[in-house]
Each structure stands twice: as structure tokens, then as C-alpha cells.
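Justification of computing resources. Each target in the renewal requires a structure prediction run like the one illustrated here; the chain below, 408 residues long, is used simply to show the kind of job we budget for.
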Amino acid sequence: MLEAEGFAHPLGTAVLVRGAGQSLLRGEVVGFHGERSLILPFDTDAPVSAGSRVEPDGHGGQAQCGPALLGRIIDAHGHPLDGRGPIVSRSSWPLAGRRVNPLIRSRVTRPLDVGVRAVNALLTVGVGQRVAIIAGSGVGKSVLMGQMLAGVDADVVVVGLIGERSREVSDFVETKINGALRERSVVVAVPADHSPLLRIRAAMRATAIAEQFRSEGKRVFLLLDSLTRVAHAQREIGLGLGEPPTMKGYPPSALGLIPRLVERAGADRESGGSITAVYTVLADGGDTEDPVVDAARAIVDGHIILSRALAEQGVFPAIDIARSLSRTMPDVTDTAHLVAAVRFRRLWSSYEENRDLLLMGAYAPGNDPVLDEAIARREAMLGFLRQSPAERATLDAARAALVNGFGA
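Resulting C-alpha cells:
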């Protein structure tokens, strides 16, 4: 943390610090100590000495946007990482977004095809919806994200890879963002070894890019992996500034950042564009009551919880249907579809609630007709959930399979 005297600029101002040998260090004003400004640098390796000059960086609060970014991979500063030369664009958007009247956000009334049968049929996503994928480590989160990216029906795809391992960033780009998808996608990547401020700015840049495309009337699919890493980054900054820790060490600013980021997505009534956003949330140790998980689940329009027990049985995507929910599904589906989904969920929940009795052999068939049907159709339900990574299930096909198999 650096302290600057005589730098009367507001919170969030991007700065340039001229170090030894005319080296430049970029940073941001993150707080104040009396009349001094507290500056967090993006890179701590640059040589800086006492008395170094601090200047405002006029371009630090804007994100370069527009069609020039399509097919490109950039970092938190907007610099290309793909070795394909500089990006030239005259379009820009504030990193922190623009305040809008909440009435400009339109209702979610149209379904969105994401190419995953279980999601399309049982947790139908709407255009402009915000969804959280909640999972522990190693239960197929990345595979599900890849399936959704490959099958989603959108004009532009924006991916933010925040705080992941460098190997995973390279692997994700090469295996999930390829072919025709690459030409209509933008990837913002910041590995885990970068400063916490860069991780936050990367998430804000990805969201700003999506917002600019939405203002042009485009249907944007935003995937941010992961929201937990963004909250962790803000926790580091908040604790460094002396904020009081609350649950599990999270200061208020870390949990307050989640709604500020998520609320920027949605459908725009004026432009006709939309941002359908998917945020991955890491449930540390499988704890779905973690503060970040709870904060994310409260602000999004639906959540998909992945089950380790299903993953261990070889069921992928390992979606826990009973605990997952799409709040906008009644608004984007017809009655027959909704009735079939409710029946599937009822059978699934009945089996899960009585699993222990069944394993002990304590249940006598005939006592509960719903449970009897759930037992008889268990393999059919698991088969409905299973989908190989290369398979794509359209929304119409998923709906037809659900209605034909579990309709009234």
C-alpha cells in the first residue's frame, strides 16, 4: 500500500507513479488516511522510492470495447494476450458501469437455449437472467461451463477467467473457446498470481464489455469464473485497509461487491439488448452456506448446485435438481413444460429424501405411490440428466423429451 500527499482525487481514480529510472507503476486510489491517499499498485515489482511523483491516469477508468475485441484474449488492462497485435477501438465504457433507472431493466420473458438438456428442461434460463453455478472443487463445473458456451444461442460471448491457474486459463481457451465460437467471443483472463486489484478490474472489464455490446442491442452471454475469486480479492484489499472482518473473515466491502457486479447484467428495455450472465461460485469444502455462496444466491435469478455424490456416481453434469432453482422459469415456459418439470422434481426429491431407508431395506413397496414411481424411474431420471461434453441438446428437444417422459 502506498501513501500519496497532495493528491486530491476521488476513490477509484487510476494513477501513475513515476518510479526510479522513469519507470511507471500503475495503481488505483482505494482509500484515505487523513489527508493522504492510499494507493494499491497493480504490480509490486516496479522500483518506487519515497518522493516519487503521482499523477492521475485519465484512461484508467475506461474499458476499450466494440467489435475490435471479438476473437481476442485480453488482460485486466485491456492489453492483448494472444499475440495478434494491438487492439484499435474507439468505443469505451466505464469500468464501474453506468447508473441506470431500475425500470429500464425489462422482465425476463423469453427462454434461452444453452445446449444442456437438464438446464433447458428443468432449470430453463431466460434471456437477461443471472444464474449462479455453485459447486465444490472437482465436480464438473468447467465441463458444464464448456457445454453452455458451445450450445448457447447468443450474438456475443464474454468470458472472464478470474483468479484461475495459468494452466487452466490456457486449457479453457484452447478447448472451450474454439471454432466459430472464438470469432464472436471476448476473453478477459487474470491468473491467480496477479494482484487482487487486477482480479477485480478484470471482472469489471468483462462486465463493461458486455454492457457496451448490450447497448448496441446485442444478446450477450457473460460467463464469469469465478465470483468467489473476486470476493477473495476484495477481502484482501478490505483487510489491508483495516476493515473489520465478519463471517469467515470477509469484510463488508467483499460481500457488497457481489450485488454491485451482478446487478449490471440483465435485459435493457431501451436498446433491446440483454446480458444473460452465469457466475460460478466455489463452495469451499462443499459448504453451500458460505457467506459468498449465500450472498450470490440471494441476488441472482436462479442457481444451479452441483452434487459431489452424483459426480462420484459418474453422472455429469452432476446437477442436484432438488436444490437448484430457476426463478424465471414460470415466465419463460408453457404450462405443459412446467407441469412435467414439477413432476420430475417431485419424483427426484422423493427418492433423495428416502435414500437412507432404501439403502437399509426398511421401505416396503406399496406404502407410498410417489416413492414407488420414483424408484421405478430412477434410472430414467439419471439418464435424462446425463449428457456427454460433446453432445448438444436443444431447448425444443429437451422440452419434448421431458414432456413425453414425465408429462401428465
